[in-house]
Design a protein that fits this description.
Elements (H helix, E strand, L loop, with lengths): L10 E2 L6 H5 L3 H6 L1 H13 L3 E2 L6 E2 L5 E4 L5 E2 L25 H4 L2 H21 L3 H9 L6 H24 L2 H46 L14 H23 L11 H34 L3 H17 L11
Antiparallel strand pairs: 1-2, 3-4, 4-5
Helix pairs in contact: 3-8
Length: 330
């Protein structure tokens, strides 16, 4: 019982410069419609983000993760190529003719490791004997002992295990599930990277915003009245500036305008009445539309219209900002 099994394992190698494309992927549509899922899967294949090499990523000289392609070339997907033979817009990727200097230094080490790994795999494959060869040797040879029979049983079990895995992995449902898992993993990798970039940008913006405030909030020693190195003239000048500030505050405080809570205009009352009436009418219209939608859905009529309304409502809810429907005033 011989098997023609071959290694069909795939490994995801997400490229950072393609993250913005995967952020816009519609996962719900790919879950509902097989055509959309096939388009996303084909994008993974076309961009060479799925490889058959099980080599783990390593850090290059620039500090980025570098992947080993099927052709033995390393790529990171972060640095732009600066060579004259490639366009300036190309990134260091599996489809580019060259790679960056940080990844190029890893190619020689990877070649040596690849040769060693292939030699080890060939030695392991040579040690494994197929069950057909064992049965042929028993046909015209000596009667096998118990140890040879046990080894033959182990070989048969391993071959049956490989056949069962191939049969389970090649069925249509398992293939679709594996493709969806790869697509979802690629989306969430891109989402995590974009979130990290946004957090770094926010931290940098906050640092740039707080630095001028900290500089302006620092009081010089020359303006500090408690400074023992000030003379009497400087203290009088500082006292005069403080008195002028207090007088300005009092003067503007007398003419302070009352707030909107203190004054109640008739225009605001009419706006509140109009808003309340609009809420009542909107609630009545929504109740009527929901009743009509529920009745049409149960009766099986106008299912396309009901599906379109539900999809539009879902898209509208997804476009809302996070935690918008929560009451934060309490």
């Amino acid at each position: 019982m011989s098997t023609n099994s071959h290694n069909t394992d795939l490994y995801l190698r997400p490229l950072p410069f393609l993250d913005h494309k995967w952020i816009r992927a519609d996962l719900i549509s790919s879950l509902r419609y097989p055509e959309d899922a096939a388009i996303l899967w084909n994008n993974l294949i076309q961009d060479c983000e799925l490889v058959s090499s099980p080599a783990a990523p390593v850090l290059n000289a620039a500090g980025n993760l570098s992947y080993l392609g099927d052709d033995g070339k390393h790529y990171c997907g972060v640095q732009k190529l600066q060579c004259s033979c490639c366009p300036a817009s190309d990134f260091c990727g599996p489809l580019s003719a060259c790679n960056c200097s940080a990844c190029h230094s890893l190619d020689s080490d990877a070649t040596i490791k690849k040769i060693t790994t292939q030699a080890q795999a060939a030695a392991v494959a040579a040690q494994r004997i197929a069950s057909d060869a064992i049965f042929e040797s028993w046909l015209w040879g000596q009667t096998p002992n118990s140890a040879a029979k046990v080894e033959c049983q182990k070989t048969l079990l391993n071959e049956l295990h490989d056949i069962a895995l191939q049969a389970a992995g090649n069925c249509l449902s398992a293939t679709h599930l594996r493709q969806q898992l790869f697509v979802y993993e690629r989306y969430f990798v891109a989402l995590a990277r974009c979130k990290q970039q946004q957090q770094l940008q926010q931290q940098q913006a906050m640092q740039q915003h707080t630095l001028p405030q900290m500089q302006s909030a620092e009081v010089p020693k020359s303006l500090n009245p408690n400074n023992p190195f000030l003379n009497a003239t400087d203290k009088n000048v500082h006292r005069f500036s403080e008195e002028s500030d207090f007088s300005a505050r009092d003067r503007f405080g007398k003419y302070r305008q009352p707030s909107s809570h203190e004054l109640r205009s008739p225009g605001r009352d009419s706006e509140r009445a109009t808003l309340g009436l609009a809420r009542v009418c909107t609630r009545a219209a929504l109740n009527f539309s929901f009743f009509f939608l529920r009745r049409a859905w149960r009766s099986g009529e106008d299912t396309e219209m009901c599906s379109e309304l539900l999809c539009e409502a879902l898209e509208s809810l997804q476009d809302l900002p996070e935690a918008l429907l929560f009451d934060t005033s309490q």
